[in-house]
């Protein structure tokens, strides 16, 4: 991603553009580059911020979706931001949901794509073959509709991560935290506009998860992305961005 990562006051993030603030939240195995096409599309009209969630920095005993939500709260206060649009993929969507329930006054709207929070079928409880490159490649390909989206660069990065013992312990702890933290009973509290942009072939958070979010979130819309898995903004960026643009136009440019 061809943007400078800023480090200030213990936060790492990229920030480009001016206007209404969009805050993009990556997933558990995600990188800032997952949002590259989204940043490119919207930086001319909006102020786009992508914080690096401190998955590998927070104390292991407190690591969970709630601690990441508190980090997001500190980040928004540091940037003096309110009334932001939160856009989250996978774990990032879950963090956005937890934060919105606790601090709805900070959030103008929420966009969820392949979000956890109800159900997810991720790596599972462990990486039994984490030293096996082909196994990791297969797991990364599982994330997408088209295996070609799982580039060698992406597989190499995941392989490196899951073979770092301290990192994999944190990933597993956070994945278990996300699975335990089911939000079904809390979603009715979120009354701001929510756009669900979901891959029709998502195997990690399948279509039924999107339908359940749609039923439980009182002010939501559901948009399907065909030939797409768990990360629409990576696999079908043009379709994802079109849905996002229409949603933003409707809620921000009234």
TrEMBL record:
It comes from Pedobacter helvus. InterPro entries: AB_hydrolase_1, AB_hydrolase_fold, AB_hydrolase_sf. GO terms for molecular function: hydrolase activity. Keywords: Hydrolase. This is Alpha/beta fold hydrolase. Coiled coil: none annotated. The keyword Hydrolase applies. Residues 22-241 form the AB hydrolase-1 domain. Pfam families: Abhydrolase_6. The keyword Hydrolase applies.
